[in-house]
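INFO batch 0412 | record 1 of 1 | parsing
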Amino acid sequence: MFIIIILQESFNVKRLKIIRRYIIKRYKIYRDADGYLIEESKNYMYVDGKRIQLYPRPPHATVSIITHKQDFVKMDEYLESCYAEYAVMFFKPKALTFEESWQQVFNEMNLQFHKTKRSIYYECMAFGGNSEFWEDMSDEERLQYFKWCYGFAIRYIGYNGTDRNIMFAYVLEKENRHVLEVYYLPVTNSMQRKIYSHERSPSGGYLQAKDLNGNFIYETVYSSKPFLSHYQFWKERGGETTYSSLQEDFYQQVSENYHVKRGESLSPTWYTCDAQKRRYNRYEGDEYDQLYMPDEDEDED
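INFO prediction complete | emitting tokens
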């Protein structure tokens, strides 16, 4: 049997190997006594291509972060298609184009921005859930849920607990799916900068200084004039455990009130916050960490 995964060109090859090992570890694929092809997972199975739910899925609420570069025109087109296809309700209105909205926040906050080819210009915090989560929820209850989510967004990504860095926010009402999207600039009052030594490279430029252990040295600069910096913004919110910490805080402040379960993570322990480690008895070198270890038959790159 062949498992074919269609990926974007930018998909990381290492990540593909991890997914392959994850599929082998978490899914059983075999033929039964009658020759039917069976694919089993935790709560459903496929019998000759037909999906059969083994037991009802639990309600599941989600929060995610989507980063964007200079794709303003593409996002304007995306929003226009959303307006045409779905009901849209704004929590913070949008009256300008995407680029104009970005420029307005940038100018009003008088931001510092050190642009590079890899710079992140803005981000989206998206809140949603599976169909089971919305199943028994009335329109009023769903609106209240998104109000809680928007409040969480302001506390978590808002500049000093305000919505000054938020361009706009809206709810898309799709069939069996509802999502709140909050677009904002990652703004912080600190910035990490390189410390340079007196040594020069062959091309004549100064080399970055290192400590006694060979690690590069940085300094943190603080300013009353805010910086637009994706890297520093999320470093202040957990660094390597940023995403796990976001999920944990959202669970404790919002989704737990709706009787949903905190999902188990596939991430290695070094990307997992302490609360999630304790909840699922995670430890260094456990089965999930093993997914990220090189296979014995793989060449080391």
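INFO post-check: The chain has a mean pLDDT of 79.
INFO record closed
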